Amino acid sequence: xxxxxxxxxxxxxVPVEVAVGxxxxxxxxxxxxxxxxxxxPEGKVYAGYWExxxxxxxxxxxxxxxxxxxxxxxxxxxxxxxxxxQELVMDYPHARVRLHFCxxxxxxxxxxxxEQQTMxxxxxxxxxxxxxPGTIPVLDWFAYERSHTGPTHQA
Length: 155
Ligand SMILES: Nc1nc2c([nH]c(=O)n2[C@@H]2O[C@H](COP(=O)(O)OP(=O)(O)OP(=O)(O)O)[C@@H](O)[C@H]2O)c(=O)[nH]1
Fold this sequence. Notes:
Blueprint: H1 3-6, E1 16-26, E2 32-39, E3 50-51, E4 54-56, H2 63-75, E5 78-79, E6 82-91, E7 96-104, E8 107-108, E9 119-122, H3 136-146
Parallel strand pairs: 1-7
Antiparallel strand pairs: 1-2, 1-4, 2-3, 2-9, 5-8, 6-7
Bound molecules: 8-OXO-guanosine-5'-triphosphate (8GT).
Residues 18, 20, 44, 46, 51-56, 90, 92, 95, 97, 99, 132, 134-135 line the site of 8-OXO-guanosine-5'-triphosphate.
């Protein structure tokens, strides 16, 4: 919506807080490997785009609580500790969101696609496409951590 209709510049919008889980496999030496992406379900904005699983905080929830609930609801897994990693504010036409990315190394339970989404364990460069705009910076952070050069995903 344009500024004249809302009376607010895009950057004045109060961000919606979103907890995002970056599930990462680790080997016996603790080295990080593949990470989990899920596709956004039909009926949501950006349906079919690949992202890290998560969702909006409900009233009174911490990021970790919201993440635990969302991953239970969406994927049927129970996560262990959520390690705060990065934060990012994204301005979309539909919303301004503050994404709280947490790494998760431990979880229990079988993965169930409870929202008819699809999941894929990925490495760099990511093979699934398209990826959500808010996912691209995360791939850059992984590239930095892993000394990966070249593209991180397909345009
Ligand atoms: N889950 C998730 N959301 C992201 C990522 N990157 C990103 O920009 N977003 C944005 O953050 C917001 C999360 O909302 P959502 O629709 O997934 O959350 P939700 O499950 O609580 O939605 P609901 O309102 O349908 O219940 C969306 O605007 C989405 O576009 C990401 O990597 N993971």
